[in-house]
Write a structure and sequence with these properties.
Keywords: ATP-binding, Nucleotide-binding. The protein is α/β, with parallel strands linked by helices. It contains 10 helices and 16 strands. The strands form 3 sheets. Strands 2-3-4-1-5-6 form a 6-stranded mixed β-sheet, sandwiched between helices. A 6-stranded mixed β-sheet has the order 12-13-14-9-15-16, with helices on both faces. The protein has a 4-stranded antiparallel β-sheet with strand order 8-7-10-11, with no helix packed on it. The longest helix is centred in the C-terminal third of the chain and has 17 residues. The structure holds adenosine-5'-triphosphate.
């Protein structure tokens, strides 16, 4: 093995990426990719972070953040990825698999990491697993594509035929079963909201009014407080209580239960997908979106079944109605989970980095679906992403800009 070989392996959401990673880590080789036998292979992936968090929890210790006063779990997703990369570079790894390296990282961090990887490329061999073509690192020397379980090598980037052209959803969004009776203009209001963790102020005097039916993109650097704001809205973070924070016309902490709030919100973030391990059909998964439950505990009504089928038709997935959710490709699972969050036409739909880990094809379907929901429903949408999804059409942007005294917000009409 020459240390200056760097593979770019293109993965679609139907590829068996898990197996590829597993084989590399176990046997230091996979199909017709060169062998790394005798070399320790490290994995830079969300999978590694999840494992470390589990270990930290189990042993009540810090593993890779020993020099920080924060546990890995309490860090933002971008901070976690940066901490892992720092850790991998501090140990003597000669081969590193980079799994969707740029997901969850803000633009500046993406540029910095690209630079660092390029600098390290003469000492470390990288195997980059790539879902979005724009992520391709500039120093790759070898290319391959994984289709299902078959790996094919290619002489250059341009000869890889794998990426299907972009897709768009056509047809109309099925109507809600129950309509909301909330008719006020303002759905959410934050007035001078400030949040600190210990002596660190994360958000400073946040003022944000979100009108019913509007479509927002929420952006900001890693650690700027995006998830903190979202978790205050959903009620998971008690820091919203006692502040001038109103949702659905009520002040946060004024007696409503978390479930009263959650019923009115549709929420999707990629990590939710792993929580659905049971034998649910796709149809039942969508229907469960009407009942805010994971499984189906009540018999679906005819109208719920009818609507679920309409949604599946819109996604051109009606043939898969009885397929088990767990048998879908990762891209299909994410699209179904996003749709599940939409079916009841929630008053608020929160999508937290929904395209992270998706290939270009699945991401284009998801973006098209979200645009359609924004155009054809009364649902208010908050879309959080670091990646500029070129076809997404939000009306407003809320930008969080960090400073030593906490992030401040800026609103732009797009
Ligand atoms: N429980 C906690 N204890 C200490 N610090 C915390 C805690 N929860 C969040 N933070 C810090 O608050 C800041 C904001 O985190 P948050 O997750 O809201 O950022 P974010 O904008 O969503 O970031 P990213 O883009 O990386 O996901 C981060 O610096 C994070 O480390």
């Amino acid at each position: 093995m020459k240390t200056n070989h760097h593979w770019g392996i293109y993965i679609t959401n139907t590829s068996n990426k898990k197996q590829l990673i597993h084989e590399f880590l176990k046997n230091s080789s996979y199909q017709n990719i060169e062998s790394y036998v005798g070399h320790k292979i490290a994995l830079f992936s969300k999978i590694t972070i999840a494992g470390l968090i589990e270990d930290e929890d189990r042993h009540d210790t810090k593993i890779i953040t020993k020099n920080s006063n924060q546990s890995l779990k309490s860090m933002s997703s971008g901070e976690q990825k940066k901490a892992l990369l720092k850790h991998l570079f501090s140990t003597d790894n000669k081969v590193i698999i980079l799994d969707n390296v740029f997901d969850n990282l803000d633009i500046e961090s993406q540029i910095n990491i690209k630079k660092t990887l390029t600098e390290k490329a003469d000492k470390i061999s990288f195997i980059q697993l790539i879902s979005r073509k724009e992520d391709t690192l500039p120093f790759l020397t070898h290319y391959a594509a994984l289709e299902n379980e078959t790996l094919k090598t290619y002489s250059s980037l341009n000869t890889i035929p794998l990426f299907k052209t972009k897709n768009k959803i056509t047809g109309s969004i099925p109507p809600p079963i129950l309509t909301s009776n909330f008719i006020e203009k303002t759905l959410i209001k934050l007035k001078n909201v400030t949040v600190s963790f210990g002596d660190k102020t994360v958000l400073k005097n946040i003022n944000w009014q979100i009108d019913r039916g509007s479509f927002w993109e929420l952006i900001g650097a890693n650690g700027s407080g995006k998830t903190t704001i979202l978790s205050m809205l959903t009620g998971e973070n008690p820091k919203g209580y006692g502040q001038d924070l109103y949702i659905f016309g009520k002040k946060k902490g004024s007696g409503e239960s978390i479930w009263d709030i959650k019923k009115r919100i549709g929420y999707f973030t990629p990590s939710m997908t792993d929580k659905f391990k049971g034998n649910h059909t796709i149809e039942n998964m969508l229907i469960s979106g009407y009942n805010d439950s994971i499984g189906l505990y009540t018999k679906p009504t005819d109208v719920q079944k009818q609507r679920a089928l309409e949604w599946l038709k819109l996604l051109q997935m009606e043939d898969l109605k009885d397929t088990l959710f767990k048998e879908l490709s990762m891209g299909q699972k994410r699209v179904i989970m996003t749709t599940r969050a939409m079916v009841k036409h929630p008053e608020l739909l929160i999508l937290d980095e929904p395209t992270a880990g998706l290939d270009d094809f699945s991401a284009s379907i998801l973006v098209s679906l979200v645009n359609k929901m924004a155009q054809e429903s009364q649902t208010t949408i908050l879309f959080v992403s670091h990646r500029k999804e070129s076809n997404l059409t939000p009306q407003y942007q809320y930008l969080l800009t960090p400073s030593t005294t906490g992030s401040v917000g800026t609103i732009t009409k797009l």
